[in-house]
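PROTEIN FOLDING TASK:
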Amino acid sequence: MEPWLSGAHAALAPIPRLLRCSLDQSEADIRHWTAGLTEEQIWQNHPTAGSIGFQLRHLAGSIDRLITYANGQPLTAEQLQFLKAEATPGATKEQLIAEIKTAYETAHHFAQHAKDFEAPRYIGRQRLETPLGVLLAHIAEHTQRHTGQLIVLCKFAYSSDR
């Protein structure tokens, strides 16, 4: 049963609950769809959609960056460097999954303690303003978008095996 229907995180307010359920579903999908893939398949570059490795790194990096904004902080030099290297092959599947787990745990922790969803947060160098609740909802939808892209790339990888 999908997390949002299972009663998972029922003690949370709706927006943090949405985020937690989205991340739980994404993590389950990632584990399922990448289970049988090799390192070569993880980093195989699809001409129009990138690689599975990129999608994994981007999920971890984007959540890390967006939670930084949710905390009211600017990005660090390390986060900007990570962003530039998201498509660079080299990490193992286990390392990529560990990056996802760390980012999702950070977001889970933030969601558990989030309050004042109307409070402004500022995104990017231009410091575009958005309410915290909208930022958290964006993390959930962005995660699902890239998880979907990852699933499609995994299907391509599995079909090229047969």
